Amino acid sequence: MTDANLPRPDDAPGAPPAKTPTAAAGKPGRMIGLVAGAAVLGAVTGALALYGMNGLKGNASATKPLPDGTVPAATAAISDPDCAGAVATAKRLAPFAKGELAALSLATEPRRLPPLTFTDGAGKPVTLADFKGKTLLVNLWATWCVPCRKEMPALDTLEKEQGSADFQVLAINLDTKDPKKPRAFLDEIGVSSLAFHADPETKTFQALRSVGRGFGLPTTLLVDAKGCEIGYLAGPAEWASEDAQTLIRQAVGKGV
């Protein structure tokens, strides 16, 4: 699939419709202004193409206290002493967070992910706890997010080569409209190893946003077998690269 066939950022749910400027004859000043405006719009569109940030619910901060003075559960549970092992794993992985994964931010404090809820391929509700015992690469994506679409084949390859009883790529689709669209896209590009999971209400994004881990798409987290965060990456990565393969093997404890 070529870039020309990919959705533009303004295809994202909730994005304003694009306006086509019309030139007024005899008004060069206005024409210059329109050209300058188009240049700025192009720059903004390019930025959105790198990291999709439109069309998601919950972009407002969710870390403020509720009206009754309590802190949202997801925020309150962000620090967990039982996740100290994940921090130790993160330190061990530091030498491998390079090259294609240089942007991976490794945990420096014990953090447990909030109780993410989504559905499996059959529409059955599942939670992150259902995958306890496995190291996970949790990836939030949508078909309107160009970098998400581009990295799906790499995530599929990573699952094909590293997926086991100890590791799984958990890709969660956040399309809010046509439920058939993400499945059709995955079929079209030949994704065969990734299990389909979806969250059309974007609750996973909102939960991660509430603990500072969801500001756009794609969002990817490396999670240990206890549901604790090992690392976090905002934006795309080449997950089929040798850098990624090596880091995952190290995270699972299989060595280089």
TrEMBL record:
Location in or out of the cell: Cell envelope
Segments for region (Disordered): 1-26
Stretches that traverse the bilayer: 31-51
Domain of life according to the entry: Bacteria
Gene Ontology annotations for the cellular component aspect, listed alphabetically: cell envelope
Matching InterPro entries: Redoxin (IPR013740), Thioredoxin-like_sf (IPR036249), Thioredoxin_CS (IPR017937), Thioredoxin_domain (IPR013766), Thioredoxin_ResA/DsbE_sf (IPR050553)
Domain Thioredoxin, chain residue ranges per copy: 107-253
BP GO terms, sorted: cytochrome complex assembly
GO molecular-function terms, A-Z: disulfide oxidoreductase activity; isomerase activity
One Pfam family, short name: Redoxin
Keywords tagged on the record: Cytochrome c-type biogenesis, Isomerase, Membrane, Redox-active center, Transmembrane, Transmembrane helix
Predominant cellular place of this UniProt entry's protein: other
This protein's name: Putative thiol-disulfide isomerase
Source organism of the structure: Azorhizobium caulinodans (strain ATCC 43989 / DSM 5975 / JCM 20966 / LMG 6465 / NBRC 14845 / NCIMB 13405 / ORS 571)
Lineage: Bacteria, Pseudomonadati, Pseudomonadota, Alphaproteobacteria, Hyphomicrobiales
